[in-house]
Amino acid sequence: MFEAHSINTEHKDLIHDVAYDFYGLRMATCSSDQFVKVWDQDEHENWNLTATWKAHSGSVWKVTWAHPEFGQVLATCSFDRTAAVWEEIVGESPVPGERGMKHWVRRTNLVDSRTSVTDVKFAPKSLGLLLATCSADGVMRIYEAPDVMNLCQWTLQHEVSCKLPCSCLSWNHSFSRLHHPTLAVGSDDSNTGNGGKVFIYEYSENSRRWSKTETLASVTEAVHDIAFAPNLGRSFHLLAIATNNLRIASLKPLVDSTVQSGHTRFDINMVAQFEDHTSTVWRVCWNITGTILASSGDDGFVRLWKSNYLNNWKSVAVLKGDGTQAQTDSSTPAVPGPSGGVATTSQSSTTRTSEETSSKWQAPVIKGRFQKMTWLGSDPPPPPIEKNKPFKK
Amino acid sequence: MSSRTMCITQEGPANALALNKDYSQVVIAGRNVFKVFSIEEDEFVENCNLRVGKNLNLNFSCNDVAWNTIEDHILATAATNGAVVLWNLNRLSRSKQEHVFMDHKRTVNKVSFHTSEPTWLISGSQDGTMKCFDLRTREATRTFYSNTESVRDVQFSPHLHHTFAAVSENGNVQLWDLRRPDRCYQQFTAHSGPIFACDWHPEVTWLATASRDKTIKVWDLAGKPSLEYTIHTIASVGHIKWRPQRKYHIASCALVVDCSINVWDVRRPYIPFAAFNEHKDVATGVAWRGDPHVFLSTSRDCTLYQHVFQDATRPASKANPQAISLNSKGDVAYACQVNMNPVRGSAKLSGILRKAPPHSEQFCQVNSVMHRFLSKNPREMRCFHECARRYILTGRPLSDICDHNAAVAKDLNRQHVSLVWSVVKTLYSSKVGDFGQQTPSGNVSREETGLGVPQTTLGTSTGAEPISTGVGGDGDQHSLLGGGGGETPGGAMSAGEDETETDETPEQHFNGRIGLGNLSIPQGDFFFGDGEMDPLSVDFDRMNNGMMGMSLSNGLLGGSHILLDAQVQQDWTLPSEAFPLRHEIQDRSPPPEQFPNHGSPDLNDHDSQAVTVEDQPSSLLNVTTVPQIGLWDPSHIMVEMLKHHASLGDVQTSASVLLALGDQRRSLTTLDEATQEQWLLGYLDTLTRYRLWDVGTQVIQLAWIPSVMQLNQQSTTVHTSCGHCSKLLQRTGWLCDRCHSSECAMCSVCHQVVRGLYAWCQGCSHGGHLAHLQEWWQVNKQCPTGCGHICEYS
């Protein structure tokens, strides 16, 4: 069962990424409008905007949280060819007794890429404070902050060329010491003739290098997102791939191969492939235990997937994402709720119509930089409607 | 008109280019290149090289070039030495240089012809002045003083005959009337940094300015200058040019960093509408060929390019329009693109909109909505949370722990996990005394679950008689089998009974068991409806006749149930309690050699007893003294079971069982330490996400793997603070750096520094030596310091 709320983010362009922090109590959004916003949940489960700042001079593609052990730290990457690391600091409180004003400061700007930086991700915390970026020119970079207390200093540790333009990357968050640090990189190169679009890179302690161990040859279409399932206790890894459909691959390390080559070879199987989105799948995301996969596609639905004990993956819920035609859905209407301190109420269709007719065309643009957005036409349409299928046994 | 991307490379970089009035020729000019090309279908053809002659002085070194908009043979260049040079392509001589105006004192940045007056030329220079030249009189007719360091661009307005705009390095825009050279009629600050270029909109009264502050701004100059749009680019903007016939589109190229030429829709000021990435170095000039789909550009990489729109990249198309994230509660945050304008195509709309292709209209009308799907019944999270909180992992006998945890799991409707705990208890709990406690609880649960279980118990009593014969007959053989197979469990006995197995049932042991239990004949006497229960009935029989195998089969049963369970959670009616557990297997197996001699005769005896006297605990208890183990080591099953749960994502169960097992986990020899560590760390990580710090700490304390145990010993510091100023006591001893005394550690009775135990009143926080205080309070009631607090010593 899901209850849908709409959040008025007041981003002035597309939102490209949203990320919950480690505890799920904070949320960061980033948009083409070059702003990053941070939202905090209050005790009534409302999301309040607590910080907003212009992070880059180009579209901000991704935002990601570091493990809270390192502080309240965000990393962003942008069309402006840079990635940045941000830290929330508590300033000196002007009024005693009040909490100090928190604000975000840029700790570093990673400017090594010559093209748009398409993804940025922190490594599992067991590896230290490591940051991986990938860029449209096909280069994956690993940065390290040698001193975790000093977020201003990042050294470029590795630079690996993937040959194809990279669109996404994912660390393998495994807690097993038998699993080498592993990264998956996806390419959104649309030429299917260029072969596999998902690459597995592994770090070898012996050679101190990242090298490509596997290419998922069966994925030849443009890959928009990939995500390793958190591996809390599995002996194999699960990798979700968002391409023209949704795929889930299992990567089982072959034990004896490690000895020979120094690199893990994987027994790779596609355990699931879903065409339900019937269009491009843009994003995939796992829950924290790696048991539920969420995917979203151009069909405007969020679909949740779960595997049963036989490793059969099934859809467990379908969430209607965008509100433009929410009324077509016949299931129970969502309960609109105040969220983020921004009143978003479900508008009756009559209101909408009247507004539509009175609205002349106006761009979602801003006069001046910080002026409020004018959004004629309609408010965000009525919040979406959840549709929930019980998990079939 | 040709429409093909093409390029030609020159000996040097060009700083500027200009097209003639019918867009058929292009002139490029730089420090050491100055040529005219005609633009053919698929190539550039060099018409004329203007950089010729004996005296190639600085007059040939051009910052800018302009082509007369009326007279097709007149060119003007802005030279780096401050000269404005006029060129006549119709000159018969090799040198086309017509005239040199040496009026500026410093470099000329820009020259520009009037759009309708062919004889008016204006220049902007680094010396801060602009000069208007009359080509007929061949002299600078007027000089305009900008009062700034330098003028970077000057452009005649296409709308107002006498107006021109000038931009300068201090960020100001000036509007001048040609007829009033004394002062500009309008001036405003447009940017915080130098403005490098400006461009009048060909149709409306907009002026676009480009600056080092990485923005392009569009100003409406119809009245008071007002900022209409701001485009944020990734680098200093060097040049801009409005796209013809597209009201909102403007091309820009950067001065540094960015080698691409971007075409923006001013209404979507964050992401380029189209990008042209052909150049290897930054572009130095852009000129449209009158056609909105074709333009030319020069670059510092020495090339001249013609770009066509069909070869452009669309950065927005690669942009991810959706975002999704799950948090620990299972909430989904989702942002997606929405169509801003659902009433597309209505009459009203098209009246306002200029006719433009739908694509470009769609492009600028984007926005995202964000939704949050609250997981209303986060069962998974709740279960995890509750289990973590309520599980007992240590401090009690294993059987108690297992019972408790099984009850917790059951309470949370996690039957399979509950079963795991029961199995663990069965396999590893060695307390004989548990028997008495367990049977009642088994009964209770039987009553609760209801469905098939009472029938089973019924079957126990009714089925006793028919079985007894079978037992009598097969008893010897059975015990022989058991005896013979004692040291090689299962191996000899897997007598092809595989058909009774379910897939997941661990193979060998089960087979062996069935082999032993030949007595599975009277299945019909029991109320086992569906086929899946078959193995259970086998176990049941054996329970009646062979105590020995009972707990084994229960263990196996449990193992298979867990697997079955996911499938038939609701139908499941046979938790392990369904069978009265007569005794537990001892993990520490007694010497097996006793078994054939003593074990089997006993067993047979008790077989008959068990049949005739159904529930006689005393006789059953006797059996437990018989060492049966050695037959079968359950660790394999355990490991399989735990691994299965871990692979299902339920690392909590795996880790908790390991923790609860305590030292007995050592018997799980097939489970390597790395896996154990992985489970513990995984469990800890999840606990941390739910902020169950206390449980996490307990797990760490109970851990047996060094890397996990050390977690609590890292980055944890205990500070002592001065009781007076609350400054941390940095030194050894009790001297405060701020108070310069050890007063905080003084005994309030004897006024000496207390070494060791410091007792204090929690009410007034005064204290001192324990003995002194005891003494004090025997007599007094108030605090020894005289603070007035009535301390109570207890």
Automatic annotation (TrEMBL), chain A:
List localization entries.
Answer: Lysosome; Nucleus envelope
The primary site where this protein sits is other
UniProt region (Disordered), positions on chain: 324-393
InterPro entries xrefs: Sec13/Seh1_fam, WD40/YVTN_repeat-like_dom_sf, WD40_repeat_dom_sf, WD40_rpt
Q: What biological-process GO terms show up in the record?
A: cell division; cellular response to amino acid starvation; positive regulation of TORC1 signaling; protein transport
Matching Pfam families: WD40
Instruction: Enumerate the GO terms in the molecular function aspect.
Output: structural molecule activity
**Record key words, sorted:** Cell cycle, Cell division, Lysosome, Mitosis, Nucleus, Protein transport, Repeat, Transport, WD repeat
Q: Where are the WD repeats?
A: 8-40, 274-306
Polar residues bias locations:
324-333
Return the SUPFAM superfamilies for the record.
WD40 repeat-like (SSF50978)
**One Gene Ontology cellular component:** Seh1-associated complex
- Please give the family membership noted in the entry: Belongs to the WD repeat SEC13 family.
Q: What protein am I looking at?
A: Nucleoporin seh1
From TrEMBL, chain B:
Source organism of the structure: Zootermopsis nevadensis
Ranges annotated as biased composition (Polar residues):
454-463
Q: Is Lipid metabolism included in the keywords of this UniProt record?
A: no
Q: What is this protein called?
A: GATOR2 complex protein WDR24
List, alphabetically, the PANTHER family matched.
Answer: GATOR COMPLEX PROTEIN WDR24
Pfam families in alphabetical order: WD40, zf-RING_16
| SMART domains documented for this protein | WD40
Q: Does the keyword Repeat apply?
A: yes
Name the GO cellular-component terms.
Answer: cytosol; GATOR2 complex; vacuolar membrane
